[in-house]
């Protein structure tokens, strides 16, 4: 299960990272003005880099054996997706988010739940894994 979860998260985050880098205005439809400043587009592109980095981390971790490091990757994803999902909830509930946020909310909540389950199912770290 963890292999497929990390693979799905890698593909999803990779797609978002590439979209932010190459088509930030189109990715930000209904959130980015049509006459967006070059500085805003540069900021959106800047956010694409870490997304790609996390995508690579997830991709490389998907086939590793259970370990403290793999649990760290799962926890980092839980925190990241959890914070984004919480932001989506606030935006949707207050009406401040774009309409597309409802779809992202479902996706982000699903990833958050899946990473929480994956972490809950992991066995405790052994002394050999701590090294």
From TrEMBL:
Designated name of the protein: DUF4345 domain-containing protein
Residue ranges of the TM segments: 41-60, 72-94, 100-120
Which of UniProt's keywords are assigned here?
Membrane, Transmembrane, Transmembrane helix
């Amino acid at each position: 299960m963890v292999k497929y979860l990390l693979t799905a998260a890698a593909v999803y985050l990779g797609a978002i990272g590439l979209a932010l880098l190459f088509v930030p205005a189109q990715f930000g439809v209904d959130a980015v003005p049509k006459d967006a400043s070059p500085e805003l587009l540069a900021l959106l592109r800047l956010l694409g880099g870490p997304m790609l980095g996390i995508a690579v981390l997830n991709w490389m971790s998907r086939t590793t054996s259970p370990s403290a490091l793999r649990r760290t990757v799962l926890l980092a994803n839980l925190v990241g997706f959890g914070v984004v999902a919480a932001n989506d909830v606030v935006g949707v509930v207050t009406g401040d988010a774009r309409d597309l946020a409802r779809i992202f909310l479902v996706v982000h909540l699903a990833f958050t739940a899946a990473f929480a389950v994956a972490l809950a199912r992991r066995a405790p770290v052994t002394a050999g894994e701590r090294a």
